[in-house]
Amino acid sequence: MQKALIGKKIGMTQIFDEKGNVVPVTVVEAGPCTVVMKKTIENDGYEAVQLGFGDVKVQRVNKPMMGHFKKADVAPKKTLKEFKLEGELNVGDTIKADIFAAGDKVDVAGTSKGKGTAGAIKRWNFSRLKESHGTGPVARHAGSLGACSDPSRVYKGKKLAGHLGCEKVTIQNLDVIKVDAENNLIAIKGAIPGPKGGIVVIRNSVKA
Q1: Is 113 helix (H, G, I), strand (E, B) or coil?
Q2: Are 76 and 59 spatial neighbours (Cβ–Cβ below 8 Å)?
Q3: How many angstroms separate the CA atoms of 205 and 208, rounded?
Q4: Rounded CA gap, 128 and 130, in Å?
């Protein structure tokens, strides 16, 4: 069964398992997510549901989106994402963290931390140039690019310095260690993309 939730990354901590081992976990406030829209084969050509997460002030919602929420008769939501979920879900239904359980395998997608402009070493893990004679004045650049007369140009796709981070990242096959259904918290083993407070999407793993 396809399961998915929108959540907010709270931060990292550690918990102890039954054997007394320390397990590093990331705590995610997962849900509650409200079904804002339901797409059907008759109207849209495919089946999907649109989930909303996080309350937002009415004055921060523009008129078209306000009409979208009023049609569904739900409170305005800050984040909307579409999923192809199995099971009978209708507009107004609420999905909570208890759809996942300890021991589940999940994929977590989020937007990585933006790191601004970075050099080739930090961005692409290049090695430094030799720090002896002949390569100065700096050793932390990409090295030869156009190779003088042949090919006399920089190949397309050449890895260079530039913007690093702030892109969608998915980490697969993470373990759910603990689910606090009452507070809608999920503890996931290891690190997940994004800063504290960043929006993430949790799905059941496609490669488990």
Answers
A1: coil
A2: no
A3: 5
A4: 6
Given a contact cutoff of 8 angstroms between Cβ atoms, the answer to whether 33 and 41 are in contact is: no
User: What integer is the mean pLDDT of 103-121?
Assistant: 94
Q: Compute the average pLDDT of residues 150-170.
A: 91
For the chain, what's the residue count?
208
How is residue 200 written in tokens? 């993430």
Q: Which residue has the tokens 């601004």?
A: 116
pLDDT confidence of residue 141: 85
Quote the tokens at residue 206: 């496609």
Tell me how many helices (H) and strands (E) the chain has.
Answer: 3, 12
For residue 163, the model assigns a pLDDT of 97
- State the Cα–Cα distance between residues 80 and 65, nearest whole angstrom: 11
State both tokens at 167: 């892109």
What pLDDT band is residue 132 in, cutting at 50, 70 and 90?
A: confident
Q: How far apart are CA 171 and CA 110, in angstroms?
A: 9
Judge whether 164 and 122 are in contact, CB under 8 Å. yes
Q: What are phi and psi of 120, to 5 degrees?
A: -65, -30
pTM: 0.83
